[in-house]
């Protein structure tokens, strides 16, 4: 289901998902129950929409001011996974939603996520399925735009993706990069893992620790953006900020490389490295 389905973004997302054969089964917008958006039936509540259609996953597109109520409603109804395709979420709201999802045992992706796609199998988010070729490489990215760019780069070189996941660029998110890498390690259809990381947080360093410990055995290729970023400046992603060496692109590249990951200087080098590994 899509929560916030009747807005312009909802209509755009319906079109993208439908173009890949994954039209949402239902939408939710309080006060708009009984209407439809691009042919998708709309209900007032998640409870009604789930009961009527059996929907199990939710994509939330509502404005930050309404996100808390929408997300807690989806969590309460045990929608799983829940993708938060919402930017500009206050830190306190993110903390509350992430904790609620954890307590409920629900997989929460985002905030600030473009969604998730397994080409030709499933799509939940604002992703153009034409950019994603089916294959054996998992792409995990802190940037939605770069996830699509890397997937398109791989496709142009003959590589396809098993799953592409935009975990979100905020400092507090649900499913983080180490957790996503563990899922890729356990996925039989994935033979290699590609990471797009950037300055800020410790996610890439924690992935490096998993590689160094032997928990992650599949080859990992990583590109870390922000090598020239001045210290103390926060960029468009709320989690993209560095202070000193901690969280810097240089430190992340060094830590991943020493752990055994294949770190590239340019994202366009990823296919060449994958070819040597696979």
Per-chain topology:
Layout: E1 2-3, H1 8-19, E2 27-28, E3 36-37, E4 40-43, H2 46-53, E5 58-60, H3 64-76, E6 82-84, H4 91-104, E7 108-109, E8 115-118, E9 122-125, E10 134-141, H5 144-156, E11 161-166, H6 177-186, E12 192-198, H7 203-213, E13 220-225, H8 249-259, E14 262-263, H9 270-277
Parallel strand pairs: 1-2, 1-5, 2-4, 5-6, 6-7, 10-11, 10-12, 12-13, 13-14
Antiparallel strand pairs: 3-4, 8-9, 8-11
Show unreliable segments: none
Record the strand order, biggest sheet.
Answer: 3-4-2-1-5-6-7
E-strand count = 14
Oligomer: single chain
Return the domain count: 2
The CATH class of the largest domain is identified as Alpha Beta
CATH homologous superfamily caption of the largest domain = Succinyl-CoA synthetase domains
Helix content: 25-40%
- Averaged pLDDT, please? 93
Rg over alpha carbons: 19 Å
The CATH architecture of the largest domain can be given as 3-Layer(aba) Sandwich
User: Order of helices and strands, N to C?
Assistant: EHEEEHEHEHEEEEHEHEHEHEH
Separate helix tally: 9
Q: Which fold name corresponds to the CATH topology of the largest domain?
A: Rossmann fold
Q: Which overall shape is indicated by the principal axes computed on the Cα atoms?
A: globular
Which structural category do the helix and sheet elements fall into? alpha/beta
- The end-to-end distance, rounded to whole angstroms, is 37 Å
The biggest beta sheet reads: 7 strands, mixed
Estimate what percentage of residues fall within beta strands: 15-25%
């Amino acid at each position: 289901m899509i929560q916030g389905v009747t807005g312009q973004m909802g209509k755009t997302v319906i079109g993208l998902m439908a173009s890949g054969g994954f039209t949402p089964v239902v939408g939710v917008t309080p006060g708009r129950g009984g209407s439809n958006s691009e042919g998708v039936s709309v209900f007032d509540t998640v409870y009604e929409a789930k009961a009527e259609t059996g929907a199990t996953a939710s994509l939330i597109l509502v404005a930050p001011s309404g996100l808390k109520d929408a997300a807690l409603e989806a969590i309460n109804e045990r929608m799983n996974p829940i993708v938060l395709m919402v930017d500009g979420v206050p830190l306190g709201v993110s903390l509350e939603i992430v904790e609620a999802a954890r307590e409920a045992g629900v997989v929460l992706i985002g905030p600030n996520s473009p969604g998730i796609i397994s080409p030709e199998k499933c799509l939940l988010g604002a992703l153009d399925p034409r950019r994603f070729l089916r294959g054996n490489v998992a792409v995990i990215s802190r940037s939605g735009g770069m996830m699509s760019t890397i997937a398109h780069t791989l496709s142009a070189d003959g590589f396809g993706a098993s799953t592409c996941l935009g975990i979100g660029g905020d400092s507090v998110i649900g499913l983080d990069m180490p957790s996503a890498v563990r899922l890729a390690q356990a996925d039989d259809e994935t033979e290699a893992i590609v990471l797009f990381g950037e300055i800020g947080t410790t996610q890439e360093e924690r992935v490096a620790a998993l590689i160094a410990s032997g928990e992650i055995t599949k080859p990992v290729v990583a590109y870390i953006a922000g090598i020239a970023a001045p210290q103390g400046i926060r960029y468009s992603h709320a989690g993209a900020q560095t202070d000193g060496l901690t969280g810097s692109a240089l430190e992340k590249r060094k830590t991943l490389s020493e752990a055994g990951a294949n770190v590239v200087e340019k994202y366009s080098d990823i296919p060449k490295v994958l070819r040597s590994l696979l």
